[in-house]
Amino acid sequence: xxxxxxxxxxxxxxxxxxxxxxxxxxxxxxxxxxxxxxxxxxxxxxxxxxxxxxxxxxxxxxxxxxxxxxxxxxxxxxxxxxxxxxxxxxxxxxxxxxxxxxxxxxxxxxxxxxxxxxxxxxxxxxxxxxxxxxxxxxxxxxxxxxxxxxxxxxxxxxxxxxxxxxxxxxxxxxxxxxxxxxxxxxxxxxxxxxxxxxxxxxxxxxxxxxxxxxxxxxxxxxxxxxxxxxxxxxxxxxxxxxxxxxxxxxxxxxxxxxxxxxxxxxxxxxxxxxxxxxxxxxxxxxxxxxxxxxxxxxxx
Length: 300
Description:
Elements: H1 4-13, E1 44-49, H2 73-91, E2 96-99, H3 109-118, E3 123-130, E4 135-144, E5 147-155, E6 163-168, H4 173-191, H5 201-231, E7 236-242, H6 245-248, E8 254-261, H7 265-272, H8 274-295
Parallel strand pairs: 1-2, 1-3, 3-8, 6-7
Antiparallel strand pairs: 4-5, 6-8
Helix pairs in contact: 1-5, 2-8, 4-5, 5-8, 7-8
């Protein structure tokens, strides 16, 4: 980079960089303190309704999502996403909510991230329904020579219940770095009339700063949402990291919300009811209000 002012800014960021852990983990420890910027305003939130119906003639991988006894994840997530969009734009002043999917048709994972990045999202919230795979058990089907004869069968596992928050896994760090470079760094370079050279050490410093900030803010937002669900009396499995493409390919803080187990009869009834969907939306909006106040340094 040739711009001296930008170089001084990047060197100054070194004093605030926090090294990332050198190991991966499943459960994430809550991070309470977030570095804030008094000039930052939360303007755009991306709402991602998970899964969908495969579009006619589509090429590539599309997933219909999980199913319960009478409902489908793709329909539940879209219904909640539409309610969440309305609630965000009503309850959060000056914030626009952008949907990655507005119809029943699925959108590829990469295109969801592209929509988020093209709209310069400040947050990415992906909505899903959880489900457990069937259990394999052995059962006696008869006897032969006075010995039991077994067969292996699959039995539905409906024991899962409650919410779960996911943030991206460390093993996809390189993919997140590319997303940040292609979105955040390119824009910074354009604004400062410089080139975003991936081999420039100063570029890597800036990428790592964004990566560290987004990581901390993703975990913090996940904790805020999780706390609101628990406050409502929902069972929670906490916060975990997972290699979710839409999270690490979106150059912004990102959280995937598993709103409940659709193959659990109680959760399925809850997720398909107006009261249940509204409760999910209210919990997320309350968390977003707290997050917005924190990052904008709103004093109460």
